[in-house]
Design brief:
Elements (H helix, E strand, L loop, with lengths): L1 E8 L3 H8 L2 H7 L3 E8 L2 E10 L2 E15 L3 E9 L4 E14 L2 E14 H4 L2 H23 L15 H7 L8 E3 L6
Antiparallel strand pairs: 1-7, 2-3, 3-4, 4-5, 5-6, 6-7
Helix pairs in contact: 2-4, 4-5
Amino acid sequence: MKILGEQTIAAAPGKVWQALNDPDVLRQSIPGCKSLERVGDQAFKATVETKIGPIKAVFNGDVQLSDLDPPNGYTLSGRGSAGSMGSAKGSARVRLMANGGGTKLTYDVDADVTGKFAQLGSRLIQGTANLLADQFFTRFGEVVAPAAAAPEAAKARIPWWVWALAAVAIAAAAYYLLALRGS
C-alpha cells in the first residue's frame, strides 16, 4: 500500500521536529497507544490497540529512524505484530519545511499488511488509516501548538508509521509519527 500526504502544523519546524522525536508527545497523539518507549537513539518500541473493521487487535512493534537530517526529516522503518491477527511492515520518508509561521510536513509511505488484516481489503484498511490520521493529527497539532492548533488537522492523512505505531506497523508517520511519525 502506498500513502502520500501532507499536513500543516502551526509551529516552527524545530518544534515539530522535537515533537516527532518525543515519546511523550507521540504517546498522547497516537490513537490507542498503550505504551511507547525509546529503546535507543533511533529506536522505539510500542504497544497499540486498534480496530480495523470487525477486527480488534493489540500490536507490538519496533520503529527505527534513519537518514536523520534535523530538523528537515528522516526515514522511518518499522514492523509490528498482532499475533494470529496479522502483522505489518513498512517505511516512510518524512520531510519538514517552513511554511509561513508553521511547518509543512510531507510523507511518502510504503506499507504491507498480512494475515486477517490483509483479508479485509484495501478500502477498509485505507479508510481506517485515514480515520487514525485524522485523530492523530488533530491531537498532535493540539499538543505541539495548543493555542493555534490548525483547523486543517482534521483533514490529515496518516503516514504508515503512525498507523504502525497506532497499529505498530499499519503510516508516518506520521505519524506518526507520524506519526509516526509524520502526517
